[in-house]
Amino acid sequence: MTSGGPKTDSRWLALIVLCAGMLMIVLDQTIVNVALPAIEEDLKFGQAGLAWVVNAYLIAYGGLLLLAGRLGDLIGHKKVFLIGLGVFTVASLLCGVSFSSEMLIISRFVQGAGGALATSVTLGMVVTMFPKPDEQRRAIGIFSFVAAAGASIGLLLGGVLTDAMSWHWIFFVNIPIGIVAAIAAVRLVPSSVGLGLREGADVLGALLIVAAVMLGVYTIVKAEHYGFGSVQTLGLGAVALALLVGFVVRQRTAAKPLLPLRVFRSRNVTGANLVQISMVAGMFGLFFLGTLYMQLVLAYSPLEIGLAFMPVAGAIAVFSVSLSARLNSRFGERNMLIVGLLFMLAGMVVFTQVPVDGSYLPDILPAVAPLGIGLGLSFPALMTLAMSGASHDEAGLASGLVNTTAQVGGALGLAVLATTSTSYTSSLVASGVGRLEALTSGFHLAFWISAGLVAVALGLAVFVLRQVVVARDDAAPVLVH
């Protein structure tokens, strides 16, 4: 029983503030893609350099998420969130005023670092703010809508801003949002007392994990250019793996480990993160290549591409915000995750059949609609399962881990699918197949791989995850063993 309306209202207002900050950062991961041609022309990027507008952000963001989440546990989640918002907002200003390619790439790296600080602790703050299962399910549903639908909204917003104004405004738009969100967060988001840096002051461990993840993401994103079997890819991958092994060994022996390995004893924490790697790899790669299919084969404009994906955001809103809490409460998170993955798989299979002369209503809408339903069902359930084994003192760590596996999965999926699609398309063109037919066939192959990755996630959900069961309304979720 709550003590009164104002307290409850303030928590939900705080959730809106956290989601506003999260949305700003999630949007930035796709809003830039639409503006890349304009950026290339204005700042005289080379083709190789242009990729670093995206890669610099991904490497900083993915590399710092886990460390940032643990830092939130140690010095306070709200403090880390506000620092991240500040860094992200200032970096957005620098991106917007960039007058050279070097300045933009450096600013994007700083922007990624700020984004990692802010988003790494957000889910942990949501879970601790709403400990009661029914409220927590509703809050995670809203959070999941922002996390999952932000990519689709970013495509639309990027097209609108780039067409109507200029590429500079895809960064300038973050400034008022960041300022308002920070001011509101100071007033509305509850503060938490961290464990203290002495509880996790493992400097060597921090250096090892940041270096391992950053190098791993770099290796993945560059594998598209060098090839997965190249000496550079295999060598850098081996170094990244060695750094990761060194980090694990360090955590086993450190008196105050940065990442207590006991968190992985939870079958649901480990399983949910494995599901997320595979699921996001398939989803992110499909969205990216689906965008290229519409642009290169169907000749859609940036705005038309954004509008084409809007049913995804609409379906996610309906299912994650309005229905997920009731469905998860009635049928269980594990079961709803399985249903959601089946919907996603169905949408991806439909995408494998899109023709060269495709049109929206008969060909694309039947593919994107099931994807939206699947994401709306999957993400809230997956977030609950991933956080179910984390204690209050490790909420930031679990939150950072969830975000890290999402980034690694997205980078891996994009690299694998883009490389496979490009290679197959090139081989078809060399054999005399027309350009549009070759492109479409290359996309088909990538979409089948996306479906395969989601099928792997489905298998993990069925055979690894356990159902979260609530003993009573005021209890935290517990696991069935």
Secondary structure topology:
Layout: H1 5-43, H2 47-75, H3 77-96, H4 101-120, H5 122-129, H6 133-164, H7 169-172, H8 174-188, H9 203-226, H10 231-253, H11 267-297, H12 302-308, H13 310-331, H14 333-351, H15 360-387, H16 395-430, H17 435-463, E1 468-469, E2 478-479
Antiparallel strand pairs: 1-2
Helix pairs in contact: 1-2, 1-4, 1-6, 1-8, 2-3, 2-4, 2-9, 2-16, 3-4, 3-8, 5-6, 5-16, 6-12, 6-13, 6-15, 9-10, 9-16, 11-14, 11-15, 11-16, 11-17, 13-14, 13-15, 14-15, 14-17, 16-17
Structure description:
This protein has helices at 5-43, 47-75, 77-96, 101-120, 122-129, 133-164, 169-172, 174-188, 203-226, 231-253, 267-297, 302-308, 310-331, 333-351, 360-387, 395-430, 435-463, and strands at residues 468-469, 478-479. It has a two-stranded antiparallel ribbon. It has two domains: 5-201 and 256-479, Growth Hormone, Chain: A, CATH 1.20.1250; 202-255, no CATH class. Helix 1 (5-43) packs antiparallel against helix 2 (47-75). Helix content is 80%, strand content 1%. It has 17 helices and two strands. It has 481 residues and is an all-alpha fold. Mean pLDDT is 85; it is low at 1-8 and 470-481. The two termini are 29 Å apart. The chain crosses the membrane at residues 12-36, 48-68, 80-99, 105-127, 139-161, 167-189, 201-221, 227-249, 270-293, 305-325, 337-356, 368-388, 400-425, 445-465. One of its GO terms (molecular function) is transmembrane transporter activity. It is a multi-pass membrane protein. It comes from Lentzea aerocolonigenes. Residues 14-469 form the Major facilitator superfamily (MFS) profile domain.
